[in-house]
Design brief:
233 residues; alpha/beta; 3-stranded mixed sheet; 5 helices
Length: 233
Amino acid sequence: MNRNILLKDLKVKDYKETWDYQSKLLQEIVDVKIENRRKNISKITDNYFLFVEHPHVYTLGKSGDLSNLLLSEKQMAEKGATFYKINRGGDITYHGPGQIVGYPILDLENFFTDIHKYLRLLEESIILTIAEYGLKGERSEGETGVWLDVDTPFARKICAMGIRSSRWVTMHGFALNVNTNLGYFDNIIPCGIRGKAVASMEAELGKKLDQEEVKLKILKHFKNLFEVDAFLN
């Protein structure tokens, strides 16, 4: 088993370009797994972790409802935003500046073959990260992601998640609102959930955060939870 992960920070990158890149990496891993089974060999499979910040974009998951997008094409263009219907789980969400997006592309056969566990550990890595800033992240039953004040009328999501897997290889991932302009969420029904708000670390703490520092904390907790041997550049 290969428990090393190749770390790539793509900085600011177009959503579609990043989606295509994820798909390419996933397919390369799947191809190795298919070859291993066909030839009865055991070539190692790579794992990746991509950090990225996207320009303004709305994405709709495969089970999502387009009516949860409250903008016309013209209005989106006026806001400088794009839209994609994509192949992850979940409904609609927003990505944009000030948000840390993480895409782990892992062969789970290198770690564990349990999608439910994978999602819970992804959530836990964010819960432990924001706890270092004094924020109490929680899970909301039946709703993937990380929330604040979940059992109150003021429940709000601070980190959205949605994944896809093929032959135990994952893609897509999480989007943590750090210094995000939350106004862009007003144009959708986030994750298709009515009556619940969205949060950012900046809004909660009343100050801008160092996103590079937040990334390092995410990696620290991810490494411990997934028992990663090393992140390689």
